[in-house]
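Technical annex, item 7. During the second reporting period the consortium partners agreed on a shared format for inverse folding records so that results from different sites could be compared directly. Each record opens with the tokenized structure and is followed by the designed sequence. A conforming record, contributed by the partner at site C, is shown below for reference.
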């Protein structure tokens, strides 16, 4: 009898400790970050319409708070994710693939879903520069997250195509690491850079100014491809399945909202940034047939193969699905 009592007490203690551990492990707040640009519109809509909060409540997590931050580039996202100060990161395919490779076999970072497929332009203020082959040592190209961003990877692809794979870093010495807004200011001021490799809306804003012209469209190198995406750790998805589902469902709702309500979405973007841009200017971009707000990953395998071939990542995924969690596997990605 005494033995049974002790066993019962031990079982009770085990259950109690387990409950306390689970309670301690539960997230009191979800930390999400975004960067600058129209490609992050799904996250902007999620933030504005409080969609993560909506879906957390539907999952029975009404007391879980959502904390938003804005970071300058994908490398900063990855540092924050590894340090535990961020739960969901967002950025270009380059930083995602670097993080996927770096954490392969332990933290196993993977993509949640694509945010957008958009072309990126290299714009220049130098009338003598007609193509990237015209750049000299005197030129400077502003790139957000230079050295790891998707713009960097595309520029490496372009250099390899022109000068051979061994010379893919041909333009590295003239790259300048500047966030998109600062890069645009530098390009327009004509003081510190002669070109910028950037994304919507900045590339289109630049082209509104006399003397600025485009010398490269990323689609000419990659075809239609994912520009931005979200990602997180496998532990985050496994240990907090309701939080993960709430985030995924919120991103899905935001994507559907944007495609059904482009005018309202443009207004939300301008309002969120307190921008002087007109919503009509943003709407014009959303109506551009080259711009797609979609959760479907595109061109992931192509980028990964190239990055593996030049030694930036050690692992080469057999499929784009190796890089993303199963929730998007039924989409016709590439």
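Designed sequence (site C submission):
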């Amino acid at each position: 009898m005494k033995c049974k009592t002790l066993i019962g007490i031990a079982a009770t203690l085990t259950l109690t400790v387990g409950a306390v551990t689970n309670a301690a492990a539960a997230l009191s707040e979800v930390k999400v970050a975004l960067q600058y640009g129209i490609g992050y519109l799904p996250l902007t809509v999620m933030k504005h319409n409080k969609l993560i909060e909506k879906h957390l409540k539907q999952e029975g997590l009404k007391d879980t708070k959502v904390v938003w931050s804005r970071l300058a580039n994908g490398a900063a996202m990855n540092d924050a994710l590894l340090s535990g100060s961020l739960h969901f990161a967002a950025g270009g395919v380059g930083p995602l693939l670097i993080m996927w490779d770096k954490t392969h076999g332990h933290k196993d970072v993977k993509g949640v879903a694509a945010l957008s497929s958009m072309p990126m332009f290299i714009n220049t203020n130098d009338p003598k520069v007609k193509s990237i082959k015209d750049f000299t040592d005197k030129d400077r190209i502003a790139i957000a997250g230079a050295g790891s961003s998707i713009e960097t990877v595309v520029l490496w692809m372009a250099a390899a195509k022109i000068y051979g794979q061994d010379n893919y870093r041909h333009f590295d010495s003239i790259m300048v690491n500047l966030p998109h807004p600062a890069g645009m200011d530098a390009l327009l001021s004509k003081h510190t850079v002669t070109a910028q490799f950037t994304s919507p809306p900045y590339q289109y804003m630049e082209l509104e100014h006399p003397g600025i012209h485009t010398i490269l469209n990323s689609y000419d190198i990659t075809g239609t491809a994912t520009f931005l995406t979200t990602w997180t750790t496998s532990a985050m998805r496994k240990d907090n399945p309701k939080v993960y589902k709430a985030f995924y469902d919120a991103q899905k709702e935001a994507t559907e909202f944007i495609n059904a309500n482009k005018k309202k979405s443009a207004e939300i973007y301008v309002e969120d940034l307190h921008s002087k841009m007109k919503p009509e200017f943003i709407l014009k971009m959303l109506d551009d047939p080259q711009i797609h707000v979609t959760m479907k990953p595109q061109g992931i395998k192509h980028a990964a193969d190239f990055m593996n071939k030049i030694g930036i990542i050690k692992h080469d995924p057999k499929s784009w699905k190796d890089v993303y969690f199963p929730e998007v596997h039924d989409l016709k990605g590439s």
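The mean pLDDT is 90. The longest helix spans residues 2-25. All partners now use this format for quarterly exchanges.
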